[in-house]
Structure prediction request, 401 residues.
Amino acid sequence: MSLLALGLNHSTPLELRERVAFTPESLPDALASLRESGAREAAILSTCNRTEVYCDASPDPVAAWLARFQGVQLPLLLPNLYMYPGAQAVRHMMRVACGLDSMVPGEPQVFGQLKEAYHIARRAGMVETLLSRLFHVSFATAKRVRSHTAISHNPVSIATVAVRLAQQVFGALQGRTALFIGAGDTITLAVRHIVEQGCDRIIIANRTLAHAEQLARRVQGQAVELSALPRYLAIADIVISSTAAAEPILTLPQVRDMLQVGKARPVLMIDLAVPRDIDPRIAGEANVYLYAIDDLRNMIDRNLFQRRQAGPEAEAIIDDQVQRFMDWLQARAAVPAIRSLHAQAEQERQVVLEEARQRLLHGADPARVLELLAHKLTRRLLHLPTLHLRAEASRKTDVTE
Prediction:
């Protein structure tokens, strides 16, 4: 057994990460090729921030295989690779599963990616007892770390923090109306998060109506043109904006008109754009709570600090689980020796038992035969373990002297 974790992560230049990354479609062929290169078990984790091989194999052949399969010169690849054997490999997978090896501590996405890597490898027939045990222990460890520490309790993405802010202002989001301005990646993520938190009505305004409609269909929301924005401001409880506009989309006169038509309840506005989408002077209006992207970044910095504070507690849980896994591995390594010992004992039993039968057939005293059988069997069973114990004691004495 040569348990190994080999790969590179976000600390490696993007250009090299791109060259060694695997597409999901290429993984079955890659695993088959890795088996031909001598790996007994293997799984490949490949994301935008890391490419890793977990396997039962020696480091040098796996590194050479990775360079050859991805068409990268080995001298270029080697200085960027980490290679963790044995217990280090176990600890690394657990840290990856817990999000401790990520750019953002505690990020949950890699957990799902690691599970998918496991399922792909299992379908390819490359997962047996060793890796199956390692993956499942790593999954259980990640769940324990998330439930017993604060490593993932505080949101650290802009979209997630925006939705958490809305919850802090309004409490439950059921019965609330959220108006989103834009339809890019940040807005898409914010829409998904706010729907997951129970917000009832979603309105998406965008300069290109087709893009707004595409996003609205995913969440059973309503798409509107940007020119219709003033009409929907009056019914919105939450306004989140992120566009590439050069000038503010929401102006002070627009908001004042909205307030004059009788909107007495508070409205939360979150501006995630640079340059700003929402005129900062709006913050001075009654019943309007305006937050810009820098306000959210300050919250993210505090949340990241709290996540990092939970790191030592998470590492302690991982240390315990690594030791438990290595104890299991050591016990598993002893299984062949135990089987051999049992087979030897059975052979000795048969020999002594046959001698006893022959003595009885020749008229020997049964009591004497039983005593002799017990004596011989005890000596024979203890002979081999005694030799090993004496040899080990002699070895330790020689080292000491």
